[in-house]
Amino acid sequence: MSSNEDNNQAKSSTSVEDPRGELTAQLEELLNTLSNKFAGVSSEIFAKMDEMSRRLDNIEAQLSTQPQDNQGGSK
């Protein structure tokens, strides 16, 4: 009987550990997916910010090359 109880305990601990292992694997996969998506979104945001910075630099350069007369307007 003792060996029968040991087998039952081994089976129950294996059945408990297997779902935990599956859950852990699924959570790790989810975290990796989210991390990859976050990295992608972050790089897109930085790329757009760099593009906006270049555009602002171009606008600033264009405004600084315009003659000072045009800024006063007509009265």
Automatic annotation (TrEMBL):
Transmembrane residues, as ranges?
none
Chain intervals for the UniProt region annotation (Disordered): 1-22
Q: Which domain of life is it from?
A: Eukaryota
The UniProt entry, under InterPro entries, shows: HS1-bd (IPR009643)
| Residue spans of biased composition, Polar residues class | 1-16
A Pfam family hit: HSBP1
What family does this chain come from, according to its entry? Belongs to the HSBP1 family.
Q: What is this protein called?
A: Heat shock factor binding protein 1
Q: Please name the source species.
A: Pyricularia grisea
State the organism's lineage: Eukaryota, Fungi, Dikarya, Ascomycota, Pezizomycotina
